[in-house]
From TrEMBL:
Taxonomic path: Bacteria, Bacillati, Bacillota, Clostridia, Eubacteriales
Domain of life: Bacteria
Single GO term (MF): lipid binding
Xref: PROSITE patterns: DEGV (PS51482)
Pfam family, one: DegV
Taxonomic source organism: Candidatus Syntrophocurvum alkaliphilum
Claim: Protein biosynthesis is one of the keywords in the record: no
Keywords: Lipid-binding
Protein name (record): DegV family protein
Length: 275
């Protein structure tokens, strides 16, 4: 019997980690002008350079049902799969995974399908914990309970470089995007029940970074993992890390979301995630 993790490309797991743990990854699609490609086709640097320099806005789409079904059909009777994917409120990926499960013509394979209610490292945190528990031969019940515990305790805050990406992607209202840019406001956004929502508005990037640290410091005594994330924003990331290091000396996971998430938040985005 084999127990495996299946996810989608928006977890942005390191390649060596994927190979080492035999994790199956289903890529989402990116639409850029007349070009359509699977996430991972372009490296982040190349893709974000195009976003900054070409006057085209991207869109994204979920994987086809058949892509999940193809992976499910590789499982053998008695196998168990934990399928953890991008928030169903942000993408139809969960729906594709669910439809594929319904099409699987066997009852001898256990598939536990989980809506992460998150994205990027928020999704990644759940996968890392599941894999850790699988390596320790934990029970399915304990693993599922731990996933929901991370979802309940996890937080993700981010500030975008330009609201236009979220506006065009339908993730915030056009009015909010217009006012935010005109007034040079820096909205701090978060994920609530898997949806992007406004957490607070401040005037400058520096204030946004300090505010995000304030949120973390409030929870610092009960935090297990911390990650800083950026979208083609290394200089901004360094500022955020300096602020964090004044309060925290433990390990920090630094990640850069790829084209799917980056297409919706845009270059210049930085954030913090923890649970």
């Amino acid at each position: 019997m084999m127990r495996v993790v299946i996810t989608d490309s928006t977890a942005y797991l390191p390649d060596d980690y994927i190979k080492e743990n035999n994790i199956k990854v289903v890529p989402l699609n990116v639409h850029l002008g007349n070009e359509v490609f699977k996430e991972g086709y372009y490296d982040n640097k190349t893709y974000y350079n195009r976003l900054r320099n070409e006057k085209i806005f991207p869109s994204t789409s979920q994987p086809a049902v058949g892509e999940f079904l193809e992976i499910y059909e590789q499982l053998k009777p008695g196998d168990e799969a934990f399928v953890i994917v991008l928030s169903a409120a942000l993408s139809g990926t969960y729906q594709s995974a669910e439809m594929a499960k319904d099409l699987l013509k066997t009852d001898n394979i256990k598939i536990h399908l989980v809506d992460s209610k998150s994205a990027a490292i928020g999704l990644g945190f759940q996968i890392y914990k599941v894999q850790e528990m699988l390596d320790s031969n934990e029970t399915t019940e304990n693993i599922i309970n731990e996933i929901y515990k991370i979802q309940q305790n996890g937080k993700l805050f981010f500030a975008v470089g330009n609201l236009e990406y979220l506006v065009r992607g339908g993730r915030v209202s056009h009015l909010s995007g217009f006012l935010g840019n005109i007034l040079q406001m820096k909205p701090i956004l978060t994920l609530e029940d898997g949806k992007i929502s406004l957490h607070e508005k401040v005037r400058t990037s520096q204030k946004a970074y300090h505010k995000m640290m304030d949120y973390l410091i409030t929870d610092i005594d009960k935090i297990e993992k911390i990650s800083l994330l950026h979208v083609d924003a290394l200089e901004e990331l360094k500022i955020l890390e300096e602020i964090l290091r004044a309060h925290y000396t433990g390990p920090i996971v630094v990640t850069e979301p790829g084209p799917v998430i980056g297409s919706h938040v845009g270059p210049g985005t930085v954030g913090i995630a923890y649970y």
